[in-house]
Amino acid sequence: MSNNENIAQRPVHDLTGKVALVTGGSRGIGAAIAERLAADGAHIALTYVEAADQAAAVAKRIEANGGRALIIQADLTEPEAATRAVEQTVKELGGMDILVNNAGFLTYGPLTEVSAAELDRVLAVDIRSVFLAAQAAARQMSEGGRIISIGSCFNGRVPGPAFVLQATAKSALIGLTKGLARELGPRGITATIVDPGPIDTDMNPADGDTAGFQRSLTALGHYGQAADIAAAVAYLAGPGGRYITGTSLAVDGGYTA
Which residue, 24, 57, 96, 184, is the most exposed by fewest CB within 10 angstroms? Predict the structure, then answer.
């Protein structure tokens, strides 16, 4: 049986023995991703900035289901923190196979009212931290490595005013990911983006003030769940994602249709 036939017959989400680092993994989409990858067999490291209790709760759920979890306090906008998080993951969990850049900073408002401090903060969290984490992870990854970043449906559609800053940051992620794909492809490492649409989380609840408007922009007419994003990440992280790189996967209920 050929290698390709062997690969095709494996479960698409089999991550047994892999090590994944999920940034911003203490709540919402990040927590769902961490728990899903753990359920598929990966050992999980997750970072947080302030929500230590929530990060500990995610780790406890993973371990209660037979998984292995490591929590790391780190502001990944700082180079030393990104390097430390990756090195700690490698040291304590035995490797670095999957990096999920989930940490993000959501803000919106009229262009004329966006401050320089807000601009710097959004770009630091949404782009600088992704670059630094990918840089640190690439030093440790071998063939088969995956770098998966969580983007936004704003990559393909800006529905109205007040989203200039968010659209700017998430669109920059496209160029970064394409660059990573070309840089790391010869080493057998892929780089992809998952672009969520309206997802029911504490940052964007399905019963929030703008929820009706957001639902109206989707083809399906309803919010998605964090588990929908986690499922897409699991696919890209597993054997099924081995030939997908330099591109984005929209999980948005038809928001960009």
Answer: 57
